[in-house]
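User: I'm writing a tutorial on reading structure tokens. Could you give me a worked example: one chain, its sequence, then its tokens, then a sentence or two explaining what the tokens reveal?
Assistant: Sure. Here is the example chain.
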Amino acid sequence: MLFFVQCIDKPGRQELRLANRAAHLEYARANLDKIVIGGPTQTEDRQGMTGSVFIVDFPDREAAEAFFAADPYTKAGLFEAVIIRPYKKVLP
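And here are its predicted structure tokens:
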């Protein structure tokens, strides 16, 4: 089952994001079988990051929630919100 996930950084937490980036990427790479697409959202000038967007594939919402709860960014307290919604691919 696909899910759209938007993780929104707390304001002013760029240093916290950067400090945990390597661990986050390692966690993501270890779970590539569950990630359809993922990456950071950026500031308008593209010089900073403001959050993350993912399309993930899990058997149910609980598994998706558990995956994001275990992410190093979540554990570090980076996110203001993590929004998880069922997703249906239509295009292409």
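What the tokens reveal: Residues 43 and 49 are 6 Å apart (CA to CA). Helices lie at 14-29, 61-69, 72-75.
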